Amino acid sequence: MTHTSATQDRQQDAPPWRALYPFESHFLPVDEHSLHYLDEGPQLGEAPRAPVVLFSHGNPTWSFHWRNLITDLRDDFRAVAPDHLGCGLSDKPQQMFRLADRVRHMQMLIEQLDLQRITLVAQDWGGAIGLGAALEMPERFERFVLLNTGAFVPWFFPRRIRVCRFPVLGRVGVQGLNLFSRAALRMTMSHPERLSPAIRAGYLAPYDSWSNRAAVYNFVEDIPWSASHPSRATLAEIERRLPQLASRPVQLIWGMRDWCFTPACLDRFVEIFPQAETHRFEDAGHWIVEDSPERVTPLVRAFLEQPLANTAGVS
User: Fold this and answer.
1) Is residue 173 part of a domain?
2) What does the DSSP 8-state code read for residue 142?
3) Do 201 and 17 contact (CB within 8 A), yes or no?
4) What CATH code is carried by the domain that includes residue 170?
5) Terminal-residue alpha carbon distance, the chain
6) Is the dihedral of CA 61, 67, 72, 77 positive or negative?
7) Helices within 205-307 (DSSP H only)
8) How far apart are CA 104 and CA 123, in angstroms?
9) How confident is the model at residue 59 (pLDDT cuts 50, 70, 90)?
10) For residue 309, is it within any domain?
11) Closest to 292 in 3D by CA, of 266, 258, 267, 265
């Protein structure tokens, strides 16, 4: 097993967004590619079985999305934040990875790092990926924090995303012109003015060429809208099994102005997890951690600090 690490460039000529992401990079092999992840806070050698917060990002983001939460939590929790293959600082293979592949990659990360006592913190695509992994290795997971995400077969396909699937034009727009990532800087928030130039640059930095944007397009293509879609059965099976996790503490944090993972998605999670601690932010959008970091971060910390009842085992 090979694990490598590298300190982020601290030179004066480093781009401004680097100062917002002051973490050490780590890499591990996944499917013959190098997967980048952050590993901040108490390590296993220092505090065996320390609680782990495992972050799972969506599209078109990367571990940069979690920088504020990681900074706040790392003194008391082990914060692990991977970049899915093709995203962030991970390798950028051109091949298509389906949802089942992404779930398997997350399992490989968990197994290689021997993560235990995990709280999953997931947003967007990260919910289906992280929850899919939790269903395969439930003994390793203790809690779940879900923010504007989904893990069920979609019942609607927003027009703003549907246009990205247009033959030829969709790929040119998403992978060629980077329109999906650039639009996300405006359309995912109620208050996009909160994104400084450095934050905007940080989100876009890994996706600076056609080849580096392959995963951005492939994530869009992997939305299983049709019954015959290759990832439809995978997502349907995750949805079917979600009640198996209902005995675990769940926190739902939702930006109610999200036009993609709408309040109806929150309602679906409440049906599945009726015991969930639910927080609705009427003035926030899809990227709720950017719209309201000063409110989200204390909520997550308070949830993590609650005494944990014995929830071992999944029915």
Assistant:
1) yes
2) E
3) yes
4) 3.40.50.1820
5) 33
6) positive
7) 214-221, 232-241, 263-272, 288-291, 293-304
8) 18
9) very high
10) no
11) 258
Take residue 118 and report the two structure tokens written for it.
């995990």
Residue 310 placed within a domain: no
Q: What are phi and psi of 54, to 5 degrees?
A: -105, 115
d(Cα 190, Cα 193) in Å, to the nearest integer?
9
Q: How many structural domains does the chain have? A: 1
Alpha-carbon dihedral 161, 290, 93, 37, rounded to 10 degrees: -150
What gap in Å lies between CA 171 and CA 144, rounded to an integer? Answer: 34
Q: Which pTM does this prediction carry?
A: 0.93
* Residue 156 domain flag: yes
- Average pLDDT of the segment spanning 46-66: 89
58 within 8 A of 125, measured Cβ to Cβ: yes
- Give the confidence band of 18 by pLDDT, cuts at 50, 70, 90: very high
Residues 248 and 164: their CA atoms lie apart, in Å, by 37
Domain that holds residue 162: 4-304
Structure confidence at residue 54 (pLDDT):
99
Tokens coding 12:
């004066």
Residue 13's pLDDT band (boundaries 50, 70, 90)?
confident
- Token pair of 84 as six digits: 């899915």
DSSP SS3 for 68? helix
Residue 161: what pLDDT?
A: 79
What 3-state DSSP class applies to 46? coil
Has residue 313 got a pLDDT over 70? Answer: no
Give me the sign of the Cα torsion angle 144, 146, 150, 156. positive
